[in-house]
Write a structure and sequence with these properties.
By secondary structure, the protein is an alpha/beta fold. The protein is built from seven helices and eleven strands. It has one domain: Rossmann fold, CATH 3.40.50. Strand 4, helix 2 and strand 5 form a beta-alpha-beta unit.
């Protein structure tokens, strides 16, 4: 694992296998707050008190951690499923500085619990946040009308093209409840066209620092 520091001071990881970082070099926390929390979770939380989230690419656990904190701040109930084919070891994740970067260093223990808790079962981490981690390729995951929000956080299409296909997005569409939404940092034209081809309504939103645009897609 190659640890890097992004421009907002928060950690990310460089994948030597894929030749890309797990997050934007302009700021890991900044990107995740903008794309997944701001355009995804908060948008749904404004109209319903319980939200079911699917994350494609659990990775460092940053999106799950931010979601947990946001759920507690809002008094929101979140049931969170994270899919990851190659999990980081808990001792690797323990060095990430997200709690400190968010001004809540006392939550580092909670962040580590995201990585030490059991896989393949639902774990109640707080009054507001339930987590289920599944170690498997997303291609093998099946769900129907189970989620309100999907965080689609796979590696970029040029690094992992097999994740951005019609087959995958059709499964994502099926996994969402009516009026559910999918958010991703990627705004490539062919990705948007593929989303539309399986039934999504697609909108481009202003992106985080370093990106002109991001994507939100509706069922």
């Amino acid at each position: 694992m190659a640890l890097i520091v992004t421009q907002d001071g928060s950690h990310s990881v460089y994948s030597e296998h894929f030749g890309v970082t797990y997050h934007s070099r302009y700021g890991a926390v900044t990107e995740s707050l903008h794309v997944f929390i701001g355009a995804g979770l908060r948008f749904k939380a404004a109209v319903q008190p319980q939200v079911s989230v699917l994350e494609v690419g659990f990775g460092t656990g940053l999106n799950a951690f931010l979601t947990w904190l946001e759920a507690e701040r809002r008094g929101l109930t979140v049931r969170y499923t994270g899919i990851e084919v190659s999990p980081l070891a808990p001792e690797e994740a323990a060095v990430f500085n997200y709690a400190a970067c968010l001004g809540q260093p006392e939550r580092q223990t909670d962040f580590c619990r995201l990585h030490t808790c059991a896989w393949e079962r639902v774990v109640r981490l707080s009054e507001h946040f339930w987590l289920r981690k599944k170690q498997m390729p997303v291609q093998a995951y099946r769900a129907t009308s189970a989620f309100d929000v999907i965080y689609f956080d796979a590696f970029a299409p040029q690094a992992q093209p097999e994740m951005w296909t019609e087959t995958i997005f059709r499964a994502m569409y099926r996994a969402l409840r009516p009026e559910g939404l999918l958010v991703t940092y990627c705004a490539k034209g062919d990705v948007k066209r593929t989303l539309r081809s399986v039934g999504f309504e697609v909108e481009g939103l202003p992106g985080p620092p370093g990106k002109r645009e991001m994507t939100r897609a509706w069922k």
